[in-house]
Sequence to fold (930 residues):
Amino acid sequence: MSKEQILAEIRRRLRRPQESLQAAQAALEEALQQKVRGPMPALPPDAQGLRERFLAQAERHASCCERIASIEVAPWAVRRFLDARGLPRRAVIWPSLAELDWQGAGVEVAARAAQDADLVGITACFCAIAETGSLMLCSSPQTPATVSLLPPTHIALVPASRIVATMEDAWQLARAELGMLPRAVNFVSGPSRTGDIEQTIVLGAHGPAHVHLLLIESA
Amino acid sequence: MRVGLLVTCLVDLMRPRIGFAALELLEAAGCTVIVPEQQTCCGQPAWNNGDRANAARLAKKLITEFEGCEYLVAPSGSCADHVRHGYPRILADEPTWQARAQALAAKTHELADFLVRIACLQKMPGNFAGRITYHDSCSGLRGLGVKEQPRALLQKLPALELVEMRGAEECCGFGGTFSVKFGAVSAAIAERKCHQAQALGVDAIVGGDLGCLLNIEGKLRRMGDAQTKVMHFAEVLTAKD
Amino acid sequence: MESRAHRFRRNIAEALANPVLQANLSKAKGKFVEKRAQAIQELDDFEATREAAREIRDRVLANLDLWLETFEANARARGATVLWAKDGNEVSRLVVEIAKRHGVKKVVKSKSMLSEEAGLNQALLAAGIEPVETDLGEYILQINGYEPPSHIIAPVVHKSLDEIADLFARTHRTPRKTEIAALTREARQVLREHFLTAEMGVTGGNFLIAETGSVALVTNEGNGRMVTTLPRVHVAITGIEKIVPTLEDLSTLMRLLPRSATGQSISNYVSVLTGTKNPAELDGPEHLYFILVDNGRTRLLGSDYQPMLRCIRCGACMNHCPVYQTIGGQAYGWVYPGPMGSVLTPLLLGLEKAHDLPYAATLCNQCGVVCPVKIPLPELLRNLREEADKRRLRPWRERLALRAWAWIALRPSLYALASRLLVRYLAWLAEGRGGISVLAAAPGWTMGRNFPAPEGETFRTRYRMRKRGP
Fold:
């Protein structure tokens, strides 16, 4: 079997004395337990500072950012955005967002995984990262991954209270709230892009060409 | 200060005036300069081409010649870096020799670094006038941290104008025997360096390693540029009109 | 992938003689370099982060077997199947088997250098399965007759817009487009169809996370997400060295990888994928396979070359390499170009098959300085030269010249005489011209530049005369 052969070869090459095997195993367990963090850049200590940092970084990645007062008004903000872009008032949404008053706002939504023809996908996020201006999206039956991927426009609702400082903080939050990692964690930082042809950046490679963030101030 | 001058094989062969300029600068800084007559080459070509045995023999030879001096100074970042970082590694399997290598390494300096940081040379012997740019040679820069030192010295010349070229820290393509083994690639890299310097319209390209300087000069001349001078900073600092 | 590294010198000559390639290379040069320089400024302490990254990679390598077993156990606990492959052939065999088991006719691929090592595309084609490269650069290479990549993160950095415009018009039978955005749109449409119809996605893996049994994928285009979300089956192929212990360690490395690679603070998509789809989920693959590949890597463990296994494939070393900038990536002849390739290719394929590569460097150490995991690349190149010399792989003339020179240099009186004669000879050659344009002893030098004339006498001679007094 290749597995046994490869592992045997690794052990032979490492020439680790038998007696240090236990110590190595213990060190490994400890590393997994301790989850030591590496050096991190200094970030604002307060929520307001993190929010500003997040928005500034997100805009650097060519995401558009808009602040709204509460999650209840999100469907109206979406409608305004769709109208301004000349897009039909239609979108695929995460099932977790189905409770919002989309009908009241006049936006026709389908709560499901995205399909090729969908023009707009609306998601929330598990949390957002101030350091890099990234969204952390976790897959689940209520939050299918395709919604942020297939449609050319991705609208994300970002509760201000869910902005954390670093990726490390995001993992800590995931461990605390989800226990184990979901099938797919996607950190999204702006529209998809490519620089493959003459290192010229073009937005909208395979994923969305537009990412619109609605920062919910009161949540 | 008793300073041993490592002339370097290239200076010995091609540009003795750089050796004499180094001598003049060291003496101007108040050093007593010793030039061990048995010196040949630091052995870097052997080491870089995988001939460890001869690299070790040449290292031991040089250690013996220079360990009696207070300092070893070379007008070459490449050779100084080889003594400083190469020797202890080459002689790693021979503890006594390694200790001697480390002792020598600790007192080995590239010329500009020595003049600025150890000898604190204030007044330059020369009075060069003109517009120059400085090419940072790789070993001096990345091996020994020689960057500001030669610039600090050059800027003490009142009639000298120092302008920075794009990519001053990029390799000129010399690379020792690389320049012969992969001559076409080496010359193509040198061409980029020459273009960057020519774009500034300088009177001279100045550097601290003769290998790079020969490479750059050879390329400039082949490109038909007979005007732009290529000089070691020691020549510039001691040039008198 | 079949290696052309043994004919490196011919590859170089062809690269230098290709004006289109030379124009494209000089256009590309510097863009990555400048962006990286800016991006590392954003880290308060880049050097400390780099040191932490090195430590993480070394920690894993020191007990690689244990970390692999931990990864495997955690991946399996989440429903993934973990397979092991000793070499490229075994990778291809396993992937074809998986494809057949799931009735796969089309495979969409996100960029995977290991699949290039294995020559996976050819194996899939031979088995009647259609591979589709979905990274824009890799796709361009595929439709150009499976041309080899020239860079590990920017595979078509050697190609111009013009060439790509021709290629698209010819392949897609569409009107020729000259705007990069229009070409990108066209590729998006063509590839979208493939994403939706393929039954299997094949990816590499930037990192494997032992703590959670996950694979981390870093892409900008989103193709990595597509091929791991839409098809029923996902196969991730990675080298055994790609493990990192924890998600915290991944976070540290993610501060360095995009910055070193493209000069981005973060890539657009960082996906951490764990296990198979939960039955209630509306999307995601039902089957997840990991193939952990050796292909020569274990040979590096415990050797002087172990630091090479720290490599996170960012490409910074090649972006900063004066030789790479001059000859491009394809000249190196195999999957990995530039300094890391000049180390890795001889180590993975055998030094006898690529012993010119370690010499194709000026040892300027620009690569060593920018490497985010502090691989001492020039030192490893020099080690390989020592090995090539020891194994007598180098031409006898070269060895003889080197030995003869050293023999003389060890004998000061003889050396003094020899150098005096040499100087006279060179001075005679250069007489009246200030330089030598053809030097028979070093034709490599004078092919592209003059050999400056010596001053006259050696330093030694003059110094002695001066000491003796006038």
